[in-house]
Every structure is written in structure tokens, then in C-alpha cells.
Amino acid sequence: MDKSTWIPILGLTLVLVAGPWAPAPSATAQRASGQSAPYIGFVYPAGGQQGTTVEVRLGGQRIDGAHAALVSGEGVSAEVSQFYRKLSNQEVTLLREQLRELRGEVAQQKKAKQEVDEATEQFIVRLEKRIGEWVNRPACEAVSSIALVKVTIDRDAEPGAREIRLIGARGLTNPMVFHVGQLPESSRKPMLTSPFQVLGKEALAQRKRPAEEIESRIELPCTVNGQIASGEVNRYRFEARAGQRLVISTKARELVPFIADAVPGWFQPVMALYDSDGRELAFNDDYRFKPDPTLFLDVPRDGEYVLTITDALYRGREDFVYRISIGQLPFVTSVFPLGSRSGQTPDVELFGRNLEQTQLSLPSPDAAPEIYQAVADVDGLASNTFPLAVDALPEGLDREPNNRPADAQPVKLPIIINGRIDRPDDWDVFKITANAGDRIVAEVHARRLDSALDSMLKVTDSSGKPLAHNDDHIDAAAGLNTHHADSYVAITLPEDGDYFVHLGDTTRDGGPEHGYRLRLSRPRPDFALRVVPSSLNLRGKSAAAVTVYAIRRDGFEGPINLNVEDLPDGFTAAPVTLKAHQNEAKLFVRSHRNNMDQPVDLTIVGRAKMLHRTVTHPAVPAEDRMQAFLWRHLVPAQDLKALVINAAAGRPPTRVRPPKLEPKDLPTGPPQFSKNQVAGRLRQLNLLFDEWLLTDDFYRRKVAQCEVFGAAEPVVAKKK
């Protein structure tokens, strides 16, 4: 695999940063504010149907005191119902001691034929559930704390990807993907925290599932949600009718782009489809260049079919989350052309399955040059999204035959040519006429627009002499790919005359899905911006920094002025300039408020002078993430949010402390704790009490033990 990786998330871009401007860890900006950043690593289930309420689990780290949740966009609300922090051995010992006492009380009441106290029974259930969630040594500390969140989705909420974040004692977490779906949904029972696997004893950490949880029966169409544990295969049985054109589409790496401490760094799902006799009808571990698989099946006959999903390496953990949509669903496999010129309405031809009587959602004619996500609508059901490019340059189509210099298609610069490598071993050749010293750029947009083309560019003179060539070119602002497959050539031509630009597929493949947009022009200096992190937590009346990265294009090396626009009340930020050739800078945001209940949105804008005009671009929020211990990626988010917290004040207790025991009721005996141990013990008791895991009586007795038994140092025998 290429050392640069591109991964889809939220319909935007997940970028491997390779090169001299690779970012530092995303926690840098948080350390500037004197705290470690709260983090969430998975959401399960990672979506829900319109018009429903679903309970989701968010696994993370440093999310203590999680008390609120945010979901981007309109029509979706979220409320934290429970928080399970990682408990220590001593805390679990306390809970087990209390559980034994309560069970004993209930047993005595039943033996005496007394009415069992309902509150006591509910407390027992709460303790059993909490202890059942505990793992002494989690497989991954980064997802070992759990927040339970109720997400309510309006019936008319727009389908598609959203962002969900938590607010806790340390502030706002990073965003994770949450999908609003249109199909009926089912979810497997959530996994508990996975235990650490010991080399040679891996079987001891395997999840033990009852037989009824191995296979689920479902009705089409639907979306199923699941998690893969180590060594597991999940099975789904359903009925289908002859002639149905099924689409089975998975979201996994799109939901959790990077699995912490894992190689290759993400969940690699593998799907297979079998008939009732166990014959394999379809198999897929990647959909073209995308790691998430998609299956297509023309159902051969009425009957039952079984879908299986597992990890390619049979790994698994609670953050190996997937969503599979199954049914006779609209699905776009390719489009042509891959874009249009600004001010024009594109005439797009769709290819795929179940696309009869389609209505398209396309960029508006006045859309600015950019890559947009479009969708096809069939009877109110949305297809998968697909990218369409908008540019300001003149456009044209490639004309066949043009696979040799003798048949080359003459073009006049500047132009964007929309074409396809129609068949294996096909080449498209274009002839340009230029003068000595002209600087010419040839750039392919194909893989960045979901094309299957793995392009190759070369430039030759009129005699056929090669002057330049390129296979893969890193574009740190592009994504949705597993490697940089688009080509880029910038060349200064040596003399007056004709030159030929050759475009083909590196793998010598071709077909209708191998579309491209080839830009032939003089350099168009420009830039893009990314800002890390997308969640900025500030202590009261202090400052914190974000890092802004510049992605320079077509040789642009000039200064870029950065500014935070439309600052909310109580915030200030001094402008910063990215100097010539500089690719990153810190920008400090200062708060004049003590604390806030809800975060605010920030907008960072960059401006640069180019010739006689000023170019302006917003900075796209992003998260800095590591893949497989080495490569760093920028994961764009939908919003840049800031929150002011007062960590010293903390949150008020959720329960009223009971009165202390009377002196006559205090325990007696030798000291059990040293004075240094008492503070830690009391902190544990207070936390467990606030989490409604200790009864008033048990809490009072244990606090009294600390106060009495910690009054003097315990006697320790001296060594001779």
C-alpha cells in the first residue's frame, strides 16, 4: 500500500499528511490550555432511523462527568442518560461488598415472607449491570469509558452523516460519525469492554456468545448494526424473491476511520452471501478502492439467504463497528461527466442499480468552484452520495479515437477535459501548441471523484521524446481514497511547438467507471486550509491555540493572513500571518468568560494576494489522527467549536450527602488506612455515591471507617 492513505468520513476528506508539514499530535492545542483532550473512539449503533429514539454507547477516554451530547444539523437531539467511567479494583471491591449485603437483605426478607423492597431490588440490578460492565485490564484504554446517550431523530430529519460529541468535566470531545437512516433498523446487543489479550492465552479474552446471538433473522429492506469481536463472524438470515436486485452496502471504516493501536489501522470488513444450501453467491472485502465492501445480487430464486461479516484478519473489539443496509436500494456506481463549469447546470449520466425515475440533488448553477456531494432520490429513498466537481475553467469532452499522437485531440488552454479510459490499455492523447518558456500544468481529478481510474500522465514533444511523467501525486486536501492515485505534472516547455499529453491507467484497466477530469492550463496558484483540533476547550478567562495548516497549490508560496471572523461575545483572537513558504502556524483564541454551558462556533478565514486580486478561503476544521503507529492524518469535521470550562469549580453533586453517623454508631477496631490513604478512599466513595452506586447507609458506614480508622497511622512491624 502507498505510504499515504485517504479515508472517507462525513462526506469530506480524511488526509494522510506526508511531507515536511506533517502535523503534530492533535492534543498539542489542548495542552496549551493546560489539560488533556477528552476523546471518543466509537459510537454504537452509529445511526438510527428517522422518527425513532435510539440509545447509543460512546466509548472514549477522559470523558469523566459526561453530562451532555451534541448532534450536528437540524432534527436530531441527544441526552446523556448514564456514564460508566473506568473503575479501579478497589471501587469494584466496594460494589461487590455492597451487592452481597443487599442480596442478603433480600434473601432474609423472602425467608421471612416479607414484602421485598422494590428500591433495593432496583439497586441490585444497577450494581449487577455496572459490575458486569467492568474489565480489569481493557484491550484499549482509549475506548474504555462509556457514555450512554439517547438520540431522538425527527421524522423529517435529513438523512445522511452527522457529527456527535460529548461534553464532560474536561470539556468538548472530538466528533464522531452518526448517520440518520431511512430504513427500519436492528442492532445486535452491545459488546462489553474487550479484555486485553495475553500472548499465548488469546482464547481467554474471546467473547462468549450464546447461540442465539450468532445469527439474526431480518426482514428486507433494513439497516443492521453490529460490532465484531475477536474471531467472530456475524450472520444475518433473510428471505428474498427471484428477480430482486439487492444492494448490500457496508459502512465501517467510514464510521471509525482509525482503530487505536491496530494494524493496518482500521476495521477491514469482509462480507459473503450464501444461499439456503450454503453455496457462496457473492463475496467482497473492498468495493473498488474503498475498504468498506458492497455486494450486488440478482436474486436467482425465492428462498432464504445468509449474509456473513467478519474482519479480514479475524481481529475485533468494541470499536469494530459496522452498519449494513440491505434491500433493493438505489446505488450509484459511477457518473459522467464528473463535474461541470460554474454557472452551468450539469447534465449528469448515472450508472448503478435501481436508479429508475431518479431525481438528482446537484450543485446549484451559482455554486463556487469546489467538490460537492450529490445524491440520487428514487421514490423518496436516497442513494449513496457521490462527488461532483465545479470549476471556473472552460470545459470540453474527449473525442475518440485519440489514443496515439497521430490521432491526438487538439485543445486550447486553459481547459478541463471530461473523458474516460473506455477499455483496457486505452490512452487518451491531447495536443497543445505552446511557446518556449511556457509553464504548463496537467492535473487529473479522478480518484478524488470516486473514479476507478488509477491515472498515469506523461508529456512528450513532437518527436515523441518524454519530457515529464507522473503516476501518484499527494494532495493533502483530498480524500475518499486509499492512496493518491491522481496524477499531476508541472513543466516548463523548452521550445516553440506542439506537445502531447498522454493519459492512461497505471494498471492498464479501463471501462465506463474510469472517468476523469483533466485540467490543462498555466499554473493557477491557490491554497487550502485545515485547522486542528475541531473542538477547542478553554479554561475560564484564558487562551488556547489551534494549529492552521496551509496546503499550497500550483507553486503558490506567498503569505496567508489568518483571522477569526464573527467572534462570539466574550472571545478575542489576534490575526496571524503564515509567512512565505510557511505551512503551519498557531492561532490563539482568548476567552473573557469564566465558563459556558454550550459551545460556540468559530470561523477561521485565510486571505492571500495573488497578482491583482485577493483570494479568500475558510479553514476546514479537522482532527489529527494516527494510523498504525506511524502515519498521521487530518480528519475534516463539519464544525469548529469552542467551549469555556471552569475545571476548578467542577459540577455540583448529583445527590445530597446523608448525615454522618452518630458517635455511638461509629465502628471500632484497629486502623485500616493511613492518613494518606484516607483522601483517596473518600474520593472513591464520593464518586461512586454521585453515580448512584452506593446506598446512603453503605456510604455513611464506609465514610465513617475512613474517618475513624484513618485517624492514626497503622502499626507496622519493624524489620529486624
TrEMBL record:
Keyword Protease attributed: yes
GO MF terms, alphabetically ordered: peptidase activity
Keyword Coiled coil: yes
Gene3D superfamilies (alphabetical): 2.60.120.380
E.C. no: 3.4.21.-
Coiled coil: 85-122
Gene Ontology process terms (BP): proteolysis
The protein, known as: Subtilase-type serine protease
Gene source species: Stieleria magnilauensis
